[in-house]
């Protein structure tokens, strides 16, 4: 009897003439796994039937574009609506592809590593790519950060950071210090503990009431990178620490730029003040630099704007230049020693794919590509391109704010974006954007040239007008 791969590949690809499956009942799977390209219709039908996309229903409301190739800042796409289109990637694949696609050095790093070993467990074993990467990260991140835990993704890096902080206090005999304090408007990932420090509205905490750990929230930091620091705000933040420090393990925030929580910028004074307050109230300070790391805000790390170092710092996204999933959690020697003093003196985490050699090798190549060039000037040029290109957007009806920092450009509307209309307008202008909530934003690959950047800002304008 046929196995029930029904409604799967088997239904779409009945056995064909000349195709002899090894195991007949799996013929659809073997067809799906064969070298024969899927027709566009087959591909979109299978995608629709079986694949979840980020924050989507099943089936998804809109047909995704199929990416067939990518090169430099361009994605080659195919879809029923637009046919074949080359689109400039205005998103850097969610902050990650800082060098664009198919960068020769990054491609080569993966190939070269494949000639040695693609993956090997990290328990009891080590390898050169991971060691080189850790040493480089320690070198370029704020000074007292000395120890690196390679994680599979940004969310996992945050989970590890939380474990580090809880274990640190446990090691110090302060077992009551288990909660986290953050400010509203944040985003820290989609697994359980990171979700608990995401903005309660943006993170839909009402969906998870009673299930999600209840953390402490300060108001969102006052907006504006250049804005005067608001003493009242700091007083409010301090009040929460004063009242709750006995139960608080850490303050967890994104410094300078809150990304997916609302693309808001704040003054470097706030992370600086948080450093002082955390020390005064004996709470650890965690910086989530998963979005902001590796030059995006105009400094190598957002913390560099403030000139302070956290106790624990997470990096991810651009770490591998967008090639493979890898993140990292760094901590100071003080934190590592605190963990070592606990009744369980080891950091209680060890993912299967920890330190993956391919990811580590391409991360090293990405770091080298970044540090070898004058990234500061390059990002400065993008910043002025974004400012020039986006400032007229301020005049459009329905636009509440336009803001730019480093290689990040944001248009905020005074209403929810019609994301379908906005994305379409961008595609019509040859640009890939992904607006959300009331935001149309871009953070292009650093290698984008002035002409392509002008096309991107034009597309943002068109998307703002349409959305
Ligand atoms: C994307 C992001 C995360 C989560 O990273 P994933 O790799 O998607 O798990 C966490 N924090 C910030 C600031 C992010 O932008």
Automatic annotation (TrEMBL):
Subunit structure: Homodimer.
CDD domains on file: OAT_like (cd00610)
Example of a GO MF term: adenosylmethionine-8-amino-7-oxononanoate transaminase activity
Highest taxon listed in the record's lineage: Bacteria
Pathway terms, separated by semicolons: Cofactor biosynthesis; biotin biosynthesis; 7,8-diaminononanoate from 8-amino-7-oxononanoate (SAM route): step 1/1
Family listed: Belongs to the class-III pyridoxal-phosphate-dependent aminotransferase family. BioA subfamily.
Protein name: Adenosylmethionine-8-amino-7-oxononanoate aminotransferase
Residues binding substrate: 94, 187, 317, 350, 434
Species for this entry: Actinopolyspora righensis
Catalytic activity as recorded in UniProt: (8S)-8-amino-7-oxononanoate + S-adenosyl-L-methionine = S-adenosyl-4-methylsulfanyl-2-oxobutanoate + (7R,8S)-7,8-diammoniononanoate
Keyword rRNA-binding: no
Primary location group: cytoplasm
GO BP, one annotated term: biotin biosynthetic process
Gene name in the database record: bioA
Claim: Zinc-finger is one of the keywords in the record: no
Signal peptide positions (record): none
Cited PROSITE patterns: AA_TRANSFER_CLASS_3 (PS00600)
Annotated keywords: Aminotransferase, Biotin biosynthesis, Cytoplasm, Pyridoxal phosphate, S-adenosyl-L-methionine, Transferase
Function: Catalyzes the transfer of the alpha-amino group from S-adenosyl-L-methionine (SAM) to 7-keto-8-aminopelargonic acid (KAPA) to form 7,8-diaminopelargonic acid (DAPA). It is the only aminotransferase known to utilize SAM as an amino donor.
Cellular compartments per GO CC: cytoplasm
